Amino acid sequence: MHLDVALSTLVHLLTTPQLLFLMTIAVPMGIFFGSTPGLGGKLGLVLLIPIVFGMPALTGAVFLCAMHAVVHTGGSIPSILVGVPGDGPAAATVLDGYAMTKKGLAGRALGASFGASTVGGLLGAVFLGLSLSILEPMILMFSPAEFFLLALLGITFIAMLSGNNFLKGLISGFFGLMVAFIGLDPSTGDERYTFGQLFLWDGVSIIVSVLSMFAIPEMISLGVKGRSFDPAVAAAAAGKSEFVARAAAEPVSPPARPMKVKVSYAQIWEGMWDVVVHKWLVLRCALLVAAIGVIPGLGGDAAAWMAYGHTVQSSKNPETFGTGRVEGVIGAETGSCAKEAGSLLPTLFFGVPGSSGMAIMLGAFLMLGLQPGPTMLTEHLDIVWSLIWALAIANVICVIMLVAAAPWIAKLGSVKAGFLIPYVIVLALLGCYIYGGNWQNLVLIAVMGSIGYMFKRHDWPRAPFVIGVILGPIAEDSLLKSLALGGIGFFFRPISMVLVALIIGSIAFYIYRSRKPALNKAAAVKQDLGKPEVKHA
Amino acid sequence: MLEGRILISGIMFAIFLAAVGFALTYAPDARLLPLTVGIPGLILTAVQLVKELREQHPEKIDPRDFPREVRMLGWFFLFVGGLVLFGFIKAGPVLVASYLYFAGKEKWYVCLIAGAVVAGILYGVFEWFLGLPLFEGLVFQWIYG
User: Fold this and answer.
1) Which residues in B lie closer than 8 A to residue A155 (C-beta atoms)?
2) Mind spelling out the 3-state secondary structure of A402-446?
3) Which residues of B touch A458 (CB under 8 A)?
4) What is the ipTM of this complex?
5) 3-class state of residue A155 by DSSP
6) Cα B83 to Cα A392: distance, rounded to the nearest angstrom
7) Fewest Cβ atoms nearer than 10 Å: which of A225, A275, A485, B99?
8) Predicted pLDDT of residue A256
């Protein structure tokens, strides 16, 4: 373990006023994006990218990481207070958190949420720090051929986790790859899909792709629906298990008129003490989810649901969950915050984003000049440790801010999301323009944003597209390098073969899973036909 | 009427078809990856399109959403058009205030304050503080040469 680097980066973060100041302003931003239904962490990252443009790599990365680390803590506020989750993972918190509010225990639920999020975030950071020394030799063994295969695996994994939309997910990922090929060919310099437009010579920027697929469709949808979130739909769309989707659909019914909620410091402390009482649950959920977060795609919304599912399964009274059990809040919140550290691992070292949020983060890292891969361990270990510490410090700053502001926090959940639509659209368009300084990017985002909205409207997964755009150049570069170094034989190395097997296995697993309901149905029909006819008297 | 789910599958099929078609005109080295990705993509979109065409069930989308969608897309294109023609500093505040007044049904003074806030962010933060020159719009570029 690189203890010297770990300690020196911590000292550097804590003694550099600029970094501390940036983290201190990133945290309330993260809380705001998380707590405003319809915005969320991905949009927060997208909107902050223009601001970090031009910053030194370490400063920009720490700022974005600190913001992203606390988004889920913010997301729990509207989940608990008004029964409307701020983002996908926070939907798990609604089940027991909002039930507690209806019982007059909003403060305790918030306290439990703040405490569990902070401890979850810290444990996740510890997990990431400890796993570095174990993973280092493995990461350094990877050659360009493996990175090419990892890029393919990343798209396959994330498409597979697009619920029942595997085919659409794959097409979306392939579409992203095709968009990544726009520009000059890296080996020959030939123009590809530029149509004589000079601004396309450098390709379509990741910023334009991300904004058009996330910011614009979300804002159009928010304007169309006039509401922001439906936990059951979100759970089903995210491909959760039937149990989770049903649990999400059943007990929550947000009120037509928000209740008047009073939050006291005594209740907050009571909730935070609950986290201490349930310390083993917190530890189990954090480690489980941080480990799961390493698997690309699973580090997304599913993590909070898995932690919640584990909490329910390990309880002596699972039937009481959904009625206001504090353990439900603790499990879900620990999970949603611990996963960030886990999903940072494949993002930094393999260039394969652990979640859709990390896909955007990866784009931002590339924009800041950080190239994910083994060089992060060999040349930028200080940045890696700074990010780990940023995750931990941001969580601590977050809990201090939230506890201090607890009595007034109830107002955060009632921000009028519709009011933000024009601001977000203008800032998104501004972000597109600033990167590259081409007004033509505004026209491009109009076209791609319309496609993005159609994707959202018809349940086409959008995360694989962004991952395709990000991984496209990495895949192309790795393929060209591996072909130049060892030809096609490079793909027959043992690690490459394992990755090829994983790609084939993931596709085969999906085909098996999608055929299973049909097979079960056929078996049930066969069984029904075999039954003797019941004669009624 | 053509359903949206069929339309988006058709659009994706057309995009991949065009992408493969264009790739065939490139030099062998330049077309290697576009074809490696484009041809499977074309096959997958064809499968998806056929799947959508064969599916019988109607779309589970609220029909009342359609006029709202047209309105919101109209606003979005108005934002893009306004910013391209008149630039961020001039069009940004006007568009935000107009949206809140006409679409958000906010009071006029709220809209004015919102517009002023946008002007403050665009000019104060981006142009003055960060020193990033913002696009002044095609109309003003044409007028001032």
Assistant:
1) none
2) HHHCHHHHHHHHHCCHHHHHHHHHHHHHHHHHHCCCCCHHHHHHH
3) 4-5, 8
4) 0.93
5) helix
6) 40
7) A485
8) 42
